[in-house]
Automatic annotation (TrEMBL):
Keywords: Membrane, Transmembrane, Transmembrane helix. It comes from the Bacteria. The keyword Transmembrane applies. The chain crosses the membrane at residues 7-28, 40-57, 77-95. PANTHER family: DOMAIN PROTEIN, PUTATIVE (AFU_ORTHOLOGUE AFUA_3G10980)-RELATED. InterPro entries: VanZ-like (IPR006976). This is VanZ-like domain-containing protein. It comes from Litoribacillus peritrichatus. Residues 8-121 form the VanZ-like domain. Pfam families: VanZ (PF04892).
Length: 131
């Protein structure tokens, strides 16, 4: 079962990416002003995507005194790619007649990515300090 976990994480991550793109690009009935709950959803979505990216595509990390530094360094490309993914979705939304580009959505997406990086950093410090 342990050997199947990386495959499960990859499948889940890719499924989440596709699901996110589809949900973000389908027509919606938008009524009223900007809903702040929407920003929470954006933040939570990109938080989960960041953690899934970390679980799905782990990098080899040397077991030394610099584990915390190497952890985020190893995964920085995951976070950069998620930022680009979010930007491309926002651009695609701006090209539709039923959605629009939003800088606030980009900020919420980036906040979720940053929170996932923070969680990974805290986890790596906790794990390295208890070894």
């Amino acid at each position: 079962m342990k050997n199947s976990l990386p495959l499960l994480f990859k499948f889940t991550f890719i499924t989440a990416l596709v699901f996110t793109a589809v949900v973000c690009l389908i027509p919606i009935n938008h009524q009223g002003p900007v809903n702040h709950f929407d920003k929470i959803v954006h933040t939570a979505t990109y938080l989960v995507l960041g953690l899934l990216a970390w679980l799905a595509y782990p990098a080899t990390i040397q077991a030394d005194s610099h584990v915390q530094k190497h952890t985020l360094h190893a995964f920085k490309y995951h976070f950069i790619l998620l930022f680009i993914y979010g930007a491309l979705i926002e651009i695609a939304q701006g090209m539709t007649e039923y959605r629009s580009f939003s800088w606030l959505d980009m900020l919420a997406n980036t906040s979720g990515i940053a929170l996932s990086a923070l969680m990974i950093q805290v986890k790596s410090r906790f794990v390295s300090s208890t070894d």
